[in-house]
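Annex B. Sample input.
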Amino acid sequence: MTGCYALLHMVNIDEMKERLTAELALVERELKTVGRQNPDNPADWQPTPPVEDSAATEDDEVADKIEDFEQNTAILKQLEIQHTEITKALERIEKGTYGVCEVSGEAIEEDRLEANPSARTCKAHMGEESALNN
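Annex B, continued. Sample output.
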């Protein structure tokens, strides 16, 4: 574990926190373009339904609105995942566990954190990250 702490000192935690905070703000802005926060659960986002247009009687217009809604739903799901990953990375910074692989307990490589500041695993365990409990 000594190597782990030595590597963490090489990563500028303040810089990573700043990057993650900026990334979180960007994701939240993007989320607002395709959805809205659930009033009953602010951690949950819902896709914005298409605007009802009583004049839109053409099948093509209705189909386009349905397609747009489905596309927004897919985008929203991906943005929600990013939002959760960034939020959890910021929580790890606060807890002092940022940069530690959740599988092995070893340090996450600096270049991996540079490429993906919300990474939860080292390179050796990248394939296992999606299987970790959120």
